[in-house]
Design brief:
This protein is mainly alpha-helical. It is built from eight helices and no strands.
Length: about 170
């Protein structure tokens, strides 16, 4: 998201807009590249977790891979959303950091959400971190089958898609 704003400030975006390629396609390409980067980071993290800390996938490997993919897609959508609503590099950094910290806490990525008050657990359902954490837990230590990956994947894809659409529409007005 910050790179898109930097490119906008440096005039790169103005040159891109002069090409026959629609800006929505440029933003979708950025979302795809962000998804690939997210997948590579997840691969490195889980290889280290498996090799160093002995983390095991007790559930479906396919479900595990799907959850990782859907989480990366959701994160890429959020990046496009930030690029659409943010007007400066600093603003995007502040909004992004605030959202990541709050959603990690309320979504159960810092500690188990069942330890939180019920009202906070309810809010967690509206956050992608809850669904990513729940899906990864289902595929790793809870040892659940592939069918338990479908709901978290659907929600993550939906959230990422909605964020992407809002980001693209907001970006056009920027």
């Amino acid at each position: 998201a910050k790179e898109l704003v930097i490119e906008r400030d440096r005039g790169v975006e103005a040159r891109v807009r002069q090409t026959p390629c629609p800006m929505a396609l440029v933003l979708l390409a950025r979302a795809i590249s962000t998804t690939v980067i997210g997948l590579l980071i997840a691969l490195a993290v889980y290889l280290a977790a498996i090799g160093v800390f002995g983390v095991r996938i007790h559930g479906s490997w396919l479900g595990f891979i799907l959850i990782i993919l859907c989480t990366a897609i959701s994160a890429a959508g959020f990046a496009i959303f930030l690029a659409g609503i943010g007007s400066s590099e600093r603003q995007i950094q502040n909004i992004g950091t605030f959202f990541v910290l709050i959603s990690s806490f309320v979504g159960g990525a810092w500690f188990p959400s069942f330890l939180m008050p019920e009202w906070m657990q309810t809010i967690g359902y509206a956050l992608p971190t809850f669904w990513a954490t729940d899906g990864l837990a289902a595929m790793t230590w809870r040892g659940l089958p592939l069918s338990h990956a479908f709901l978290p994947c659907g929600v993550l894809i939906g959230m990422g898609g909605l964020a992407t659409v809002i980001g693209i529409r907001s970006y056009r007005d920027a």
